[in-house]
Specification:
- The protein is of the alpha/beta class.
- The chain folds into three domains: 250 residues, Rossmann fold (3-Layer(aba) Sandwich), CATH 3.40.50; 156 residues, Ribosomal Protein L25, Chain P (Beta Barrel), CATH 2.40.240; 115 residues, Ribosomal Protein L25, Chain P (Beta Barrel), CATH 2.40.240.
- The protein has 13 helices and 25 strands.
- The strands form six sheets. It has a seven-stranded mixed β-sheet with strand order 10-23-24-25-21-22-11. A seven-stranded mixed β-sheet has the order 19-16-17-18-12-15-20, with no helix packed on it.
- Helix 11 crosses helix 12.
- The two termini are 59 Å apart.
């Protein structure tokens, strides 16, 4: 539980959920308390969709005086849950900047209390033990247009159900041989109200309780009880639980216990992304990605490894807002938020990804010098650094053309360009190998242009980044793109599934790149802007003198371009309407 976090906004955003909370607080409902919860199941890694829920629940708590948000694990299915997931989820929530004090909660903390509540419902003739198999229960459930059929055990005597339920708990029966069901209405138009299963037999060790239990509560039964026990005020769920709300209410009303309010909002969908836990698991298990923290994955651990700053993810979640209808957000907006944050906070360095050797013929042999370079033009307090310069350099291969087209202004034979922070240089010659590929470029430099300006006022049309060959650090650089090459990965031809839309070019590995020496001791997770190239992050695979960088995002901002186009379209429509 928490009333402290790193993301409390200066001005709280407005949405329908926050409006409900504000009205309740103003009317002193819940004694003006605000208690929310984030209740993940510890059976997988969190993704960007969970980040929206995290920011909503923890954010609302942070925006209200004395507000609290519980981190509670819904650990009711021991066959799919592991401590590994608990650790990962805890790390992810904390990394996003939220805290919950010193108490992490678990549904398993309440197993005995849930069992006692179930006994209470049996005694009130509101629940019964059913001997039907799962297939029989499903077959008798009915359809959306026809009622279900009563179980032959629906009117089993209370004492008999009590005895059987106790023996279920004691481990007398095999898995699947009996369940406990709520006794509601098999003709209800809401399928969730047709005598839902509350407990099933499962002889499986639990990651926290071991072999203490062999019956486990179903989510719909456990969900509301956990909220009630913790005295949550606003139980905020995604839209698929809207049809479950009558069941949530029924359980709490029949037990006559504390009753929070359930509110549903639309989950996050992103272009070029799958959010289904089942699909993400398949990507991992089939080796289609390199684990849950693969930088192409939408998992929070994957985004952290790719170099996404947590503040940018929180800003994205605030920007997309909260609503009641399902929609798909353009992933370009997420990338825009990433760039926006990294532009403010990332130190600049120079790195060459596809190197071409440059020899400055008139620079003294065996000499070098240090030039001043700005660390971050967006933050002058970040100061400057020294960058070594010498006779032999590397530039990007794409920054030179022997026979350039008309609008190519970078280096070419006879052309003068600026080397960032250094000098003006002019190409005088090229060297090629036997296949005709250019292997090095020869230039002369103007010593009077140190720092990048000519005393005589002459101008150049291009400024190139570079590194000193003698001083540069070699690194592997991994260039990432969308994992899928279709906006909707589930849009496939007959007989195919979402994996048919995997992008074969989602990862390009450049094994021999050169980066300025200031990054030599960079720790995993360190973020930089490689000037003119994009934003990069040191990968955990880095070890010793081997540096590995992941490209977080290119410099070009697709979302800004989209917004500009939309603005022009609106202005055009406005002019047309006036005419």
């Amino acid at each position: 539980m928490t009333d402290n976090n790193n993301n409390a906004p200066d001005a709280a955003p407005s949405d329908f959920v926050r409006d409900i909370v504000a009205e309740d607080t103003a009317s002193a409902r819940w004694d003006s308390r605000v208690v929310t919860r984030f209740p993940p199941e510890p059976n997988g890694y969190l993704h960007i969709g969970h980040a929206k829920s995290i920011c909503l629940n923890f954010g609302i708590a942070a925006e209200n005086d004395g507000g609290k948000c519980n981190l509670r694990f819904d650990d009711t299915n021991p066959t799919k849950e592991e401590q590994e997931y608990v650790n990962s989820i805890t790390q992810d929530v904390a990394w996003l900047g939220w805290s919950w004090g010193d108490q992490t909660l678990f549904a398993s903390d309440y197993f005995q209390q849930m069992y006692d509540y179930a006994v209470q419902l049996i005694k009130a003739a509101k629940a019964y033990v059913d001997d039907q198999s799962a297939d029989e229960i499903s077959a008798n459930r009915g359809t959306l247009t026809s009622p279900g059929a009563d179980s032959p055990h629906r009117d089993r005597p209370v004492e008999e159900s009590l005895d059987l339920f106790e023996r279920m708990k004691a481990g007398e029966f095999a898995d699947g041989s009996k369940v406990l069901r709520a006794k509601i209405d098999m003709a209800s138009p809401n399928m969730n109200m047709r005598d839902p299963v509350m407990y099933r037999i499962l002889h499986a060790a639990h990651h926290r309780t071991g072999d203490d239990w062999c019956i486990y509560p179903m989510y719909d039964w456990a969900h509301g009880l956990e909220d009630s026990i913790e005295r949550v005020t606003h139980s905020i769920c995604t839209l698929e639980f809207e049809n479950h709300r009558p069941l949530y209410d029924w359980f709490l009303d029949e037990l006559d216990i504390y009753h929070p309010q359930q509110i549903e909002f639309a989950r996050l969908n992103l272009t070029y992304t799958v959010m289904s836990k089942r699909k993400l698991l398949r990507l991992v298990e089939d080796g289609l990605v390199n684990g849950w923290d693969d930088p192409r994955m939408p998992t929070i651990s994957g985004m952290r490894r790719r170099g996404y700053p947590p503040a940018a993810i929180v800003a994205f979640c605030k920007r997309i807002g909260v609503n009641k209808y399902n929609s798909t957000i353009d992933i370009a907006l997420l990338t825009h938020c990433i760039r926006e944050e990294l532009n403010k906070t990332s130190p600049r360095v120079m790195g060459v990804l596809k190197p071409l050797k440059v020899v400055i013929d008139n620079y003294p042999d065996g000499e070098s010098e240090e030039l001043d370079a700005i660390n971050n033009p967006e933050d002058l307090s970040a100061g400057t650094r020294k960058v070594p310069f010498s006779k032999v350099l590397y530039i990007e291969r794409g920054d030179f053309m022997e026979d350039p087209p008309r609008k190519f202004f970078r280096l070419a034979p006879g052309r003068e360009v600026r080397l960032r922070y250094a000098y003006f240089v002019t190409c005088t010659d090229v060297v090629k190998d036997d296949s005709g590929e250019i292997t090095e470029v020869h230039c002369t430099y103007d010593p009077e242009t140190r720092g990048g300006d000519a005393p005589d006022g002459r101008k150049v049309k291009a400024t190139l980044h570079w590194v000193s060959a003698e001083h540069a650090v070699q690194a592997e650089v991994r260039l990432y793109d969308h994992l899928f090459d279709k906006e909707n990965p589930d849009e496939t031809d007959d007989g195919q599934d979402f994996t048919a839309n995997l992008n074969p070019n989602s990862l390009e590995v450049l094994p021999a790149c050169y980066i300025e020496p200031s990054v030599a001791s960079a720790e995993p997770g360190s973020r930089y802007q490689f000037e003119r190239l994009g934003y990069f992050c040191v990968d955990p695979d880095s070890a010793g003198d081997k540096l590995v960088f992941n490209r977080t995002a290119a410099l070009r901002d697709t979302w800004a371009k989209i917004q500009k186009q939309q603005k022009k379209q609106k202005q055009g429509k406005s002019k047309n309407s006036k005419n």
